[in-house]
Amino acid sequence: MPEPLDPPPMTPHEEREWRAEFKRAGRRVVLEKHLDYRPLIKRDLAIVWLHELDKADEFVRSWSFYIAVASIVISILALIVAVIALSK
Asked: Whole-model pTM?
């Protein structure tokens, strides 16, 4: 039986349950099965959930990169100060 064109909106309770289900299943399983989820609104929530995870991962990766660069700069500055202090 085809899905109705405008499925009823999900309730906050359904959203919490589905998000918990996605979390239990894990990213890989949800990514592999998200096209099979029914009702369609659950599939749409799975796509949103995956997108939110990707954004969070991107945020962590970008800050990790900046922290690594800052650590390198601080190490180089400490090395320069140490060399100057030893040369006096």
From this structure: 0.66
